[in-house]
Amino acid sequence: MSKLLRVTPPADTPPAAAARRRRARSGPYGVLDIGSSKIVCLIARNEADGRPRVLGCGWQKARGIKGGNIVDMQEAEQCIRAAVAQAEEAAEIKLTGAIVNLSCGQPDSRLMTIQWPIGGRGVTDADLRAVLNESRRRAADEGRETVHAAMLGFVIDATPGVEDPRGMICETLGAQLHLVDSASASLRNLGVCLHGCDLEIEDLVSATYAAALSVLVEDERQLGATVVDMGGGTTSIAVYGEGHLLHTAQIPVGGWQVTNDLARGLATPIAHAERIKILDGSALDGGDDAKAMVMVPQVGEDEDHLVSIPRSTVINIIRPRIEETLELVRGMLTRWSSSSPTC
């Protein structure tokens, strides 16, 4: 695969304006992670060495959000307001906008090939920006909004494998791009919700992309790695190779399904099922699981009415759901690898 070439988007695209604000920002900024199980807000400031220093944080249990999407505007707005207020109080700062970690709108990852007329002159930065604009326009025609776009490789007339075409003379520039996009309608609803919280979306970042950046070291990104991020209502993957994000995908299955399985299988309230999952849950057998006992309250019974079950019962309920989820993940990776061309 050729070296990834990053080009600044043209000035008339919204992400460019957000990028300029971010580069010029010397003061505090907010980051908002809107998940299916929790909403987190961080306020930070970049130090002289470029590292962020957290000034305040807020956390709220998510309501009105399912599978990463907003399903109840008022409840979601209340949760976001509460999380932001906690962070603002701790940091003693009032936010007017935030960088938002995106998981709504069925995020998708795809390759796009674009042929751009050059007309016998040298390729310029303006041509590359025009190619990026064209990819965003095509995504918009399908009701999708581009969150991330990166160029993977180029063809100069009949010459493939070009890494950087700038300055090269040709009639037609062929470009292959990797796009991460999301449903425009879902993003509009997200914007309306945050506007109700008196917040502007300063930028959008794919939640899967952010998760991969946070856990992979540079060698892992170079050699190739896949990150599986299992959240409350979704499980997402990010594939890295040669230092670059190559593919992302998401399925609407997560930790909530495990909790629900436990609640049904053990006839216990949802809150207790969540607690059992956290304290005693596992997908792997241990040597003493058949002897280790777990006390389980029953639905419709008094709180002091507990049933004792072996921990192995808990594991036997959790394991099939985890195996099913990982099979879905493997299926996504298999479909991608079989259809992904080599640049």
TrEMBL record:
Example GO biological process: cell division
Protein name: Cell division protein FtsA
Entries under InterPro entries matching the protein: ATPase_NBD, Cell_div_FtsA, FtsA/MreB, SHS2_FtsA
Keywords noted in UniProt: Cell cycle, Cell division, Cell membrane, Membrane
UniProt-listed Gene3D superfamilies: 3.30.420.40
Region feature Disordered, mapped onto this chain: 1-24
Chain ranges of the SHS2 domain: 29-215
UniProt entry tagged with the keyword Cell cycle: yes
Family annotation (SUPFAM superfamilies): Actin-like ATPase domain (SSF53067)
GO cellular component, as recorded: cell division site; cytoplasmic side of plasma membrane
NCBIfam families noted in UniProt: ftsA
